């Protein structure tokens, strides 16, 4: 396809036509990221902002804290616990999304072709629905007078409402809920391409169900699994809205902690350093993902 | 179960149950939210009969009116700008053969899909706040530029997909008949590309309309959009009014999405 254009134009046209998009993105997306990295190496300003003096202090403070009286250095427990909570919640979100997402994707991919589009459409609607609205929706369900507690009390399973809202569990439920479609879609794409005759073949060769799952299905749909897990893990790690709404200010994740540094905390360099950490982790996992998937998936 | 009974892939044990459970879990909260937006009572906890009361209250709320107006103005500008630059970039990257630096263009264009939104938001906060101080301008321009930027990949992907699926024979024929490159584009390429452009613009529109984080960080005082207004309402008790606004916004998204699917299904 691309060879057709070759005769009548030069590659420079590609650059020229892409220039407006590149300029827009360099001004309002990629460029400012460099400012964030720069700010992480500056000194904290008196009120907010920065002073243009080089300092490694923000990076030091990501992991350590210095006692203001005797100057002893210890690990920054508060920062570390927020980072740990973020990683833990993101991994748990990924696991829950996978446990629910794999059967869902499998179910859609094995429907007769004329119903497949319908089921897929049902997954796409929540996927494109505003994240904030979905977070509000799950809040309706898990709050003290919400659907879940009302239901459980009505059937006498509990007598007092269970406090879920404003806990880590609420954040976990919320993230698994909002990111589930991100797991289903790539898994569906992988399973849809899967040749089901391979299962038949395995079965004819006396493989058990478990063996077929482990030795035939999972290895073949692995690129879809990796893609789904990456697509859920990355936004979970940088989540801001869901932990803010469902965690209620106390159960922060890295995203909220970064915001705090730019707002009340007024430590822009520390916020910038934490943003850089998040950026590096996310881009690093994406890089590993592209390496792994380009090596293993012959379909590219 | 006998070992040689043929293996039915549609019926793995527990899979159908978990799949249907997923669908119920995905929709139950949304349905609850929509249902309670028609609550005639004064609190979200008590059902006070079916009514459009909270829609009327939301519609008369000046803060909501302003936010709705701003949301639409920004989303329209952002989708027009993003779609225009994305169309040009898609033409540049699919019709000119492979060239040096193409990967760089792909990475920059898709960057908003890769970088966590909170990091972009913080970056724009720093960048735009110094521009605000330097120029004194605090209008909607910053939000429009920011929204246009993160909408670019959403416009670019369907347009690029459409271009790649398009037969170039017509364009080649036009060129053979001495049509200028502009004439070829205007009378051949663009009409064929239109479904992709419309689809891209619709996705960009929804993405802009729904954005919370970047808007929250970039907006100046008094520049709430519907989502940031709703986020702000959280500090007080949740009212059915927020449910009503959510449902209205949801309806717009579903409408645009349905149109998107209809537009992309009819492939020329």
From TrEMBL, chain A:
Bilayer disposition of the protein: Multi-pass membrane protein
Alphabetized InterPro entries for the sequence: MetI-like, MetI-like_sf
Compartments, as annotated in UniProt: Cell membrane
Residue intervals passing through the bilayer: 20-42, 89-109, 115-134, 146-166, 172-191, 212-234, 268-289
GO cellular component: plasma membrane
GO biological process per UniProt: transmembrane transport
Domain ABC transmembrane type-1: 83-289
Record keywords: Cell membrane, Membrane, Transmembrane, Transmembrane helix, Transport
Top-rank lineage group of the source organism: Bacteria
Family indicated by similarity: Belongs to the binding-protein-dependent transport system permease family. CysTW subfamily.
PANTHER family (UniProt xref): INNER MEMBRANE ABC TRANSPORTER PERMEASE PROTEIN YDCU-RELATED, INNER MEMBRANE ABC TRANSPORTER PERMEASE PROTEIN YDCU-RELATED-RELATED
Stated name of the protein: ABC transporter permease
Upper taxonomic lineage: Bacteria, Pseudomonadati, Pseudomonadota, Alphaproteobacteria, Rhodobacterales
From TrEMBL, chain B:
Keyword field: Cell inner membrane, Cell membrane, Membrane, Transmembrane, Transmembrane helix, Transport
Xref: InterPro entries: Bact_Polyamine_Transport (IPR051789), MetI-like (IPR000515), MetI-like_sf (IPR035906)
Domain (ABC transmembrane type-1): residue spans on this chain: 68-263
Domain of life: Bacteria
Protein's membrane topology: Multi-pass membrane protein
Record has Transit peptide as a keyword: no
Pfam (any one): BPD_transp_1
Residue intervals passing through the bilayer: 12-38, 72-92, 104-128, 140-159, 187-209, 244-263
GO CC annotations on file: plasma membrane
Record-level GO BP terms: transmembrane transport
Location relative to the cell: Cell inner membrane; Cell membrane
Family indicated by similarity: Belongs to the binding-protein-dependent transport system permease family. CysTW subfamily.
Functional description taken from the UniProt entry: Required for the activity of the bacterial periplasmic transport system of putrescine and spermidine.
Protein name: Spermidine/putrescine transport system permease protein PotC
């Amino acid at each position: 396809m691309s060879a057709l254009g070759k005769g009548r134009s030069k590659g420079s046209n590609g650059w020229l036509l892409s220039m407006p998009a590149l300029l827009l993105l360099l001004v309002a997306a990629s460029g400012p990221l460099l400012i964030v990295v720069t700010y992480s190496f500056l000194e904290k300003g008196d009120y907010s902002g920065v002073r243009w003096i080089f300092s490694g202090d923000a990076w030091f403070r990501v992991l350590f804290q210095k006692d203001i009286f005797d100057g002893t250095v210890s690990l920054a427990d508060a920062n570390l616990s927020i980072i740990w909570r973020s990683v833990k919640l993101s991994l748990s979100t990924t696991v829950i999304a996978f446990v629910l997402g794999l059967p869902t994707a499998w179910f859609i991919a094995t429907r007769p072709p004329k119903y497949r589009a319908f089921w897929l459409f049902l997954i796409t609607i929540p996927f494109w629905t505003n994240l904030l609205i979905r977070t509000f929706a799950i809040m309706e369900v898990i709050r003290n007078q919400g659907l879940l507690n009302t239901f459980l009390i009505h059937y006498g399973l509990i007598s007092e409402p269970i406090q879920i809202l404003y806990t880590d569990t609420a954040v976990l439920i919320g993230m698994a809920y909002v990111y589930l479609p991100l797991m289903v879609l790539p898994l569906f794409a992988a399973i849809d391409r899967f040749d089901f005759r391979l299962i038949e073949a395995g079965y004819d060769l006396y493989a058990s169900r478990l063996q077929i799952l482990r030795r035939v299905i999972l290895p073949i749909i692995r690129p879809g699994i990796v893609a789904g897990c990456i697509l859920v893990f990355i936004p979970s790690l940088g989540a801001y809205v869901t932990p803010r709404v469902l965690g209620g200010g106390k159960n922060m994740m890295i995203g909220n902690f970064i915001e705090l540094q730019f707002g009340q905390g007024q430590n822009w360099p520390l916020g910038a350093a934490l943003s850089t950490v998040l950026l590096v982790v996310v881009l690093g996992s994406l890089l590993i993902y592209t390496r792994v998937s380009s090596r293993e998936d012959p379909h590219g | 179960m006998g070992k040689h009974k043929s293996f039915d892939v549609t019926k793995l044990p527990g899979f159908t149950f978990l799949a249907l459970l997923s669908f119920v879990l995905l929709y139950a909260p949304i349905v609850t939210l929509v249902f309670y937006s028609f609550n005639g009572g004064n609190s979200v906890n008590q059902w006070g009969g079916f009514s459009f009361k909270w829609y009327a209250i939301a519609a008369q709320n000046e803060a909501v009116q302003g936010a709705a107006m701003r949301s639409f103005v920004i989303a329209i500008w952002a989708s027009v700008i993003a779609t225009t630059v994305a169309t040009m970039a898609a033409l540049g990257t699919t019709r000119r053969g492979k060239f040096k630096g193409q990967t760089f263009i792909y990475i920059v264009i898709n960057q908003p899909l890769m970088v966590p939104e909170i990091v972009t938001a913080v970056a724009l906060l720093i960048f735009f706040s110094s521009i605000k101080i330097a120029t004194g301008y605090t209008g909607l321009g910053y939000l429009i530029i920011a929204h246009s930027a993160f909408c670019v990949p959403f416009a670019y992907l369907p347009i690029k997909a459409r271009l790649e699926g398009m037969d170039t024979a017509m364009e080649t024929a036009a060129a053979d008949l001495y049509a200028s490159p502009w004439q070829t584009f205007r009378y051949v390429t663009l009409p064929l590309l239109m479904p992709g452009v419309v689809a891209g613009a619709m996705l960009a529109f929804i993405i802009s309309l729904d954005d919370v984080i970047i808007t929250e960080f970039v907006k100046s005082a008094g520049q709430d959009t519907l989502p940031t207004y709703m986020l702000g309402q959280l500090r007080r008790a949740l009212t059915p009014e927020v449910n009503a606004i959510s449902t209205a916004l949801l309806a717009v998204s579903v409408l645009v999405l349905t149109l998107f699917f209809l537009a992309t299904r009819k492939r020329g």
